[in-house]
Amino acid sequence: MRIGVFCSSSPTIDPKYVDLAYQLGEGIGLKSWELVTGGGHISMMGAISRGARSVKGKTVGVIPQALVDIEFADHDNEELHIVETMGERKAMITDISDAFITLPGGAGTLEEFFEIWVGRYLKFHNKPVVILDPFGIYNPLHELFVHLESENFIKPGMRELITWTTNVDDALAACSL
């Protein structure tokens, strides 16, 4: 099984988020699953790959050439796919992953999460969509989804396509559903 993970690449975040990413990478590797990321080597993105590789897990990166050019690529990935655009990156991650876990992150992470979630709702795929948030960073987002549903901007059942978890074991279990 291949698990696509969306997470921060910011070098200025609290180290607890980087530690979480490393732990998730270890968990994926210990299950002998493959990790699919955006191919970067810094912050959470790098940590999750290092975590997987620390237990002999296979890592697959998908990164646009423009990010390779600024020395952002994790060349230790077993597979490193270099694409031209962010759209191609997301499309490849979507195609080659069997489930998706979103960790805390910013605008890019959220953009990737939303595309996967809406894609599942529209039946472009039927792959698990999981949020791993032990620190409650996405609590306001969860509340917003409830509010949007109450105002009929999110259809009934759409929120249930997301599995919200607070620990690595539960997130990994949700990938098998």
Automatic annotation (TrEMBL):
GO terms for molecular function: hydrolase activity, hydrolyzing N-glycosyl compounds. One of its GO terms (cellular component) is cytosol. GO terms for biological process: cytokinin biosynthetic process. This is Unannotated protein. Gene3D superfamilies: 3.40.50.450.
